[in-house]
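User: quick one, fold this
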Amino acid sequence: MIPLPDFGIVLPEIVFAALALILLMVGTFGKERSTGLVSALSVASCAIAIVLVLLTDTARTVSFENLFIVDRFAAFMKVLVLIGSGLSIVISTGYLSQEKLSRPEFPVLILLATLGMMLMISANDIISLYVGLELQSLALYVLASFHRDTVRSAEAGLKYFVLGALSSGILLYGATLVYGFTGTTSFEKLAVLHPAAGVQTVGLLVGMALVATGLIFKVSAVPFHMWTPDVYEGAPTPVTAMFAIAPKIAAMALLVRLMISAFGPLIADWQQIILAIAVLSMLLGGYAAIVQRNIKRLMAYSSIANVGYILLGLAAGTERGVEAVLIYLSIYLFMTGGAFAVILTMRRDGHMVEQLSDLAGLSQTRPMLALAMAIFMFSLGGIPPLAGFVGKIYVFLAAIDAGNHAATAAIADSFYVAAALGAAISVVSMFYYLWIIKIIYMDSPARPLDRSVGAGLNGAVLVTSLFTLLFAFAPIIGPVVGWASAAAHALTP
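Assistant:
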């Protein structure tokens, strides 16, 4: 007799999916006049889902024939994704109205993409991994080209679709190899396989590499980063903000679970590869951003560099490394989301402006907005005691700790070198972050930006800037670090 699945652990996803479908019908019948209502209810749906995730028992539970897992790690990452999606909807409302793109399907597409992200985070099998990944990707393809009347947006959507389909094909081919050489796609069963158990290691390693490649594309790490600058620049700015936050967090969560839970016994085979990708991402993101003059392209390369720092924690392969990844992602959500909220205020004569020079003299015309942007730039650069500094310290200490406990001197040296390079690249990155601050505070004022940005956008800038500024102090850092530690322990018992 087939046991019935435990629907209780998937209640947040069921309710969230039902709300998304209800809002889809509201938007269908209400048309453009219902956009404001659907957007507000979409944010409320994210809040409801967060409450349900927090109320769900986070003791490790699997269901649906081991395809779906709930634990503290999944709960932590789902809350981050839902906050990121809700933030994306809040900061998009004014933009859509001013660009005459007010259509209710925009927030609904974000909800459907978020549902896919939640399924990704709780995936316990390569099959459920793929289902969640594609549900997310299909909605994001549409969002990338949402401004369909502009060539740039259509081009961004096409590039993302073609390269996304390629990465999905690579992931599926890797999945077939993993199944062909092991007879399973379950993370739990893969975790107990090793060469002594009769597994043909070469075939499994090739399959693992291809599956990981598909996910590395989604987080836009080197060498699968090529889509990021073009899509970030061409997509509507709220969509760019969405790409930079929620999907990246979800894909990183999935990559961490895959490498730690499923392929943990093979850490000696993938650790150095992930470490190399981390170093290359930090190098390319840190240096390529220097020559950018479009702020969205600069943020694209900045995100690539940040992915490198995050992967440094994953490469450690330890509980401390996973904890560092979770803390960094929490910080990354707010400082990146806040930076994009400021970018969305860059309007002049009713049109978006994206060049760094358009920020000239912002401190004289919009002093509070200039202060918020300075906080985000200093934090992204890792200046103490802002949140970005705390995140980088945790990642570097995790890498050094992994070096201290490495099996060989060569591996230990590689971690020490990677941590040193990461610190050096943080110094290099300060060049372009300080360049932005110099433009804001020292250059001759450009024509003032439009002041009508909306209460939602102003509120998002305020909340994210306060979090970034005050994270290092006990009322914020204590609970976040405590929850991140518990989540990391759940994944690496």
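User: anything notable?
Assistant: Strands lie at 61-63, 68-70, 347-348, 351-352.
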